[in-house]
Write a structure and sequence with these properties.
single chain; about 350 residues; alpha/beta; Quinone Oxidoreductase, Chain A, domain 1; Rossmann fold; 2 domains; seven-stranded mixed β-sheet; six-stranded parallel β-sheet; NAD(P)-bd_dom_sf
Length: about 350
């Protein structure tokens, strides 16, 4: 089978690999669609970060580079291993792509397995990836989805779960006002969760395309261009001078972080969703004087079932956020290059590893 493998910085190759072994307790999935994530772009430009090096194996997977990329994916079950009785061949599924130590409690009541020692991700630290034609995944991390959800849209459930967990971390509730810094995929999908919960959403974004996506998709009530609007002042105007209840930083850009601090009301909550590759400056005096609650968030924890329900019930429509569909051979030139150098022209680009979806 074909798979896109990460060898190192700016070095991704399409290799021919043996199909995975579907062993006891695992599920064999033929990948339908896989999204290109911002994390993949960081690995390509600056890595290895989450990916292991050539000579340092990941402590759980035991794998070194090269590894197959891709952690936002959907597919169809083609085989089930011994002991798997609750998933059938032909079923549509998505994957919660964790690599976690066997001794960690990942049960339905756990709230912290995503913070466990050496946690990493399928498609970044080994165990195959969604940018291969097939993959075998432990049953725990496989989530069935209704056939009524198109498989291309289903590939966005993983990043939507990131937004779901971020909203959970914020404590946002119906009637609140949220300001979201950045309308990339995570900013838009976080906004989608907020709207599904009845929150008024204000997005700040420089890209004309992404602002249009925010309003046309219905996930933002207001989409502001920070180059021409004073975002904090406009948020205060929209809230009668009070400020936003919650804010989500989805860019890893300093000026966005500063703007969100200004836009929040006293005792508001600021959630940092983006992965920062550098230290940020922070106005601690403002945090103290406004009693801002600053919270980090990473990935998701037992978030997929509730996220899938939002999609299956029709409360969230993922179709508007798909702006490109490509084959594996176009991964770098049509996918990575577009998202790195022309990201104002795209939101989520999906890859069909087998080409069947094209």
């Amino acid at each position: 089978m074909k798979a896109a493998r990460y060898y190192g910085q700016r070095d991704i190759r399409i290799d021919d690999l043996p199909e995975p072994q579907v062993g006891p307790g695992t599920v064999g999935i033929e990948v339908a669609w896989c999204g290109i994530c911002g994390t993949d772009l960081h690995e390509y430009l600056e890595g290895p970060i989450f990916c292991p090096t050539h000579d340092t194996p990941h402590p759980i997977s035991g794998e070194t580079s090269p590894i197959t990329l891709g952690h936002e994916f959907s597919g169809v079950v083609y085989a089930v291993g011994e002991g798997v009785a609750d998933i059938a061949v032909g079923q549509h599924v998505v994957v919660e792509p964790y690599i976690i130590r066997d001794e960690v409690d990942t049960g339905p009541h756990s709230t912290d397995y995503h913070l466990s020692r050496d946690m990493n991700f399928i498609g970044l630290a080994g165990r195959g990836g969604g940018l291969g034609e097939k993959i075998a995944v432990q049953r725990r991390w496989v989530h069935p989805i209704a056939d009524s959800v198109p498989l291309d849209q289903a590939a966005l459930i993983e990043p939507l779960s990131v937004g779901y967990h971020a909203v959970q971390r914020s404590g946002a509730k119906a009637g609140d006002v949220a300001v979201v810094g950045g309308a990339g995929p995570i900013g838009l999908l976080t906004s989608a969760v907020l709207k599904a919960l009845g929150v008024t959403v204000v997005i700040s974004e420089v890209s004309d395309l992404r602002r249009r996506k925010a309003t046309e998709s219905g996930v933002a009530d207001h989409a502001l261009d920070p180059r021409t609007a004073d975002v904090a002042a406009e948020v205060r105007r929209l809230t009668g001078g009070r400020g936003a209840d919650v804010a989500f930083e989805c860019t890893s850009v300093q000026v966005v972080l500063d703007t969100l601090m200004d836009a929040l009301r006293p005792t508001g909550v600021l959630v940092v969703v983006s992965i920062w590759g550098k230290r940020a400056e922070f106005d601690m005096h403002k945090l103290v004087m406004k009693e801002i609650d600053l919270r980090g968030t990473i990935a998701y924890v037992n978030s997929h079932p509730a996220t899938i329900e939002l999609v299956e019930s029709g409360k969230i429509d993922l179709e508007p956020f798909i702006t490109g569909r490509i084959g594996l051979d176009g991964l770098v030139d049509e996918g990575f290059d577009t998202l790195i150098n022309h990201n104002d022209s795209a939101v989520k680009i999906l890859v069909s590893p087998s080409g069947k979806g094209l």
